[in-house]
Amino acid sequence: MASVVQWIQGTRPRTLPNSIAPVIVGAAAAHHIDEFKPVYTALALLVSVALQIGVNYANDYSDGIRGTDDNRVGPFRLTGSGAAEPSKVRLAAFISLGIGALAGLALVALSGYWWMIAFGAVCIAGAWFYTGGKRPYGYAGLGEIAVFVFFGPAAVLGTLYVQTGEITGIGIGASIAMGSISAAVLVANNLRDIPTDAVSGKRTLAVVLGDKDTRRLYLALVAVPFLIALGMTVRVPYALLGFLAAPVLLPAVRRVAAGRGGRDLIPVLQFTGIAMLAWAVLVSAGLFLD
Asked: Of 30, 102, 111, 151, which residue is least crowded by CB atoms under 10 Å?
């Protein structure tokens, strides 16, 4: 029987900045046009984090029963390690996704934008079918695109729109920044797993591109938020605060650029996630100060 600590590990805490950072920036974009609503933001954050945990448990379950995690190099997995029964991991995924769905319904009821129920349903389906179902899109090299969409435009602009009823240029720029660096987290994860994924038949984008081009893709993606911050200064000079996140990212960039592999790439996910959260907080501070 898996311990409480192992179940917490199963949520993949190092990936949670992917769900927290976009909501912070979306809320700041709403504040920038004087439409910030704390309760709406709290519900949006609950939706985002619950769906993130749900997709992490779902991936643990689906990859585990397929045998993808049998010889993995990365962090602990509940199903692949045999610490938890697959059915219980699947139930944890459903409970997490259900909590996200309920929080989403509450948010829709408050805002009155009932069409966003369909938007939420697409997000939940995207979470499950990433590695679930007969033809998971994560096994077809589409994972990075999905992460960009769901943790970029969907999360940032969804948080912004539900509070304001509109989409702004600042919001669009921030959503591209968040989507890019979120995708970079997955690229780093898949870069580490190229050898085992190739053997197990998991055809990720990293497997398709190969080691060298995957590293180039990572470096390009993590540069995007800083280019966006620079562009934002035309309207929000304080957006330059985002560059203070660069030192946090530097250790990850060095490891990837130096050709490190295997377990040496595990910290890259953590550094990239922290840098993402730092960028979101710093740029949001700039939006609040403007």
From this structure: 102
